[in-house]
Amino acid sequence: MKDIKSFNKDELTKELVEFGLQKFRAAQVYDWLHRKLCSGFDEMTNLSNELREKLKEEYEFVCLEPERVQTSKLDGTQKYLFKLSDGNYVESVLMKYKHGNSVCISSQVGCRMGCRFCASTLDGLTRNLKPSEMLDQIYRIQALTGERVSNVVVMGTGEPMDNYDNLIKFIRLLTDENGLNISQRNITVSTCGIVENMRRLSEEDLSITLALSLHSVTDEKRRTLMPIANKYSINELMDACKYYFEKTGRRVTFEYSLVRDVNDLDEDANGLIALAGSVHAHVNLIPVNPIKERDYLETTRQRVLAFKDKLEKNQINVTIRREMGRDIDGACGQLRKKTMEEKTLN
Ligand code: SAH
Fold it and tell me: pTM of the prediction?
């Protein structure tokens, strides 16, 4: 069956006109899907019963089911575990900031990138998410909470640049003025650094923020944390970041997860100053969130602050990621993994 929520407005119009509907009906359906965020054909009350039944026979309606919702007592962050129609699970996180609500979504079921500190990749990749399945993480959260989502970060499970075409389609639907109309500037896509697709993204004419998970300043060290570093060098990554800046006028962000005694030394800070300076990057420091499957340790608070200080003294724009939802399996892939393990035990 065709996935009705993954069509853009032109495609949906063409599709439904071929199906025998008038154009204004297609606009109504699009509005139900992408603005009113309805959860099934039966809610489309300005369509006749008969028409709704016909649509049901022809089209798949993707609507994620919240299987588990955990709310942090520390900061109100909510973690959602959604069930997909094939029984797979994905995680999404709602973070409430003064400037608005931000949702972190997953782009794949699992991940094949193999980063050593990350829980999402421990069982490999199951499959890509469709545009509708990325959108619906945001749609369900907005519908369930009744609060507008203003920012979206693609930083949950999965490597977005490994699901490129669906990602671009998702971004265009999310920012469509006939849909949620989220500003492109309020969207961040995070990648472990797949150079070809970083370059393609530069040419999409989108004003989104690109975040690069750097985590090390030498190729040698990066390879010990991130297998993708065997494929692309830091030099190639920096060239791709420069290209992104040239094409879009937007500064990239470096994500740098601090791991105790691994990448938090003085020499690392010096390397990071040079790299960030060379591409005008903003640096986001993330104290690593230790997962039980690996023995990496968090950098001490004192050292995190000293690291930040050193960068700032060298004119690097730097922030420390606020650690949200630590009491609710906040790190990528932890809740999904825990649920799967519990299910296997039962
Ligand atoms: N695949 C993409 C996006 C998902 S991960 C990427 O690699 O960027 C989002 C960010 O969280 C990445 O910077 C990733 O390296 C980091 N991350 C993953 N697990 C982490 C952990 N346990 N502690 C700290 N950062 C982690």
Answer: 0.95
Binning the chain into helix, strand and coil, the percentages to the nearest 5 are 40, 20, 35
Tokens of 242: 């420069």
Ligand 1 surroundings by CB, under 6 angstroms: 113, 115, 117-118, 155, 159, 190-192, 213, 255, 257, 286, 288-289, 291, 331-332
- Give the C-alpha separation, 68 to 82, whole Å: 7
Model confidence over 202-243: pLDDT tens digits? 999 999 999 999 999 999 999 999 999 999 999 999 999 999
Concatenated DSSP letters of 296-326: --BPPHHHHHHHHHHHHHTT--EEEPP---G
Ligand 1 atom with minimal separation from the 226 CA: 15
Residue the block writes with tokens 């690996």: 294
Nearest CA to ligand 1 atom 21: 289
Q: Does the annotation count 241 as an active-site position?
A: no
